[in-house]
Amino acid sequence: MAENTANTAASTAAATSTEPAAAQASAASTPASTPAPVTTAPKAEDIASALLSALENRTQRVERSVAKSFSEQYGLSEAEIGTILAQAKAQKDAQLPEAAVAEINKQTERANRKLITAEVKALGADMGLVDLDTAMLLIKQDGIKVDDDGNVTGVKEALEALQQDKAFLFQTSANQQQAAAQAATAGSVKVSTGASLAGAKVYTSKDDIMSIKDPVERQRAIAENIHLFRSQK
């Protein structure tokens, strides 16, 4: 009995003494858990570059497929199709963007208008043009051209047509003489009281007026001095 008890105690002690070693061995044999790798988001530039590369590769494959199809359809070699495609690409790349073309056209139109205005002013001065701004609004510019060197043609013809339609915009020698005559007449008109302007003769009686030999002048004097012919009560 005592011997069995001793054997049991010894077995228990041995088992107890081996537990730490077994635990250590198990821990040593189990690999340590590694932290999950941190995923870094790619830069926008890298994504864009990858997309462009993928699109370019796909475009090239499509181009080769289309070139082969056209080669079979039209009896041309793939090299000839490739040359045609390369020329078309070069022509497209040489074209300016629509916004740039629109801005260039706008600036060109503005410069051309300044050149046309200067030409209208210069030639119009010789023709007696008196209102440049109105002339620029009314003049027909269909026949006016500006070449690449800035030379303006067609202005003289356009001004002559404008002079026919809108003569009031031009001060010619004929209407200058007419204006001078009108100014002289206005300066010699007599007022109804008998006073005169610009040293014109003053009539004080009907007899003075009726003694005028020129019938036109006599009628004018009567009209201007009608008070002398009214009956006085």
Q: What do these coordinates show?
A:
With 233 residues, the chain is mostly helical. Among the domains are: 114-171; 174-228, no CATH class. Helix content is 66%, strand content 2%. It has helices spanning 2-29, 44-74, 78-94, 98-127, 132-138, 155-165, 173-187, 206-210, 215-224; strands at residues 145-146, 152-153. A two-stranded antiparallel ribbon has the order 1-2. 7% of the residues are buried.
The general outline is elongated
Largest sheet entry = 2 strands, antiparallel
Number of helices: 9
Number of strands: 2
Structural class: mainly alpha
Strand content: under 5%
Q: Specify Rg, calculated over alpha carbons.
A: 55 Å
Helix content: 55-70%
Largest beta sheet: what is the strand line-up?
Answer: 1-2
- Indicate the low-confidence ranges by residue numbers: 13-18, 189-198
Average predicted confidence as pLDDT: 75
Distance between the termini: 185 Å
Order of helices and strands: HHHHHEEHHHH
